[in-house]
Amino acid sequence: MRGRDLLSISDLTPEELDYLIRSALAMKRDGSRPVLEGQTIAMLFEKPSLRTRVSFEVGMKQLGGTAIYLSQAEVGLGQREPVQDVARVLSRYVAGIVVRTYAQQSLVDLAAAADKPVVNALSDDEHPCQALADLLTVREKKGRVDGVRIAFIGDGNNVAASLSLACALGGAEFVIASPPGYGLPEAIVDAARASARDSGGAIEQVVSPEDAVKGADVVYTDVWTSMGQEAAWLERQEAFQGYQVDEALMKLAKPDAIFMHDLPAHRGEETIDSVIESPQSVVFDQAENRLHAQKALLAALMADEAAS
Question: 0.90 exceeded by the pTM?
Answer without folding.
Answer: yes
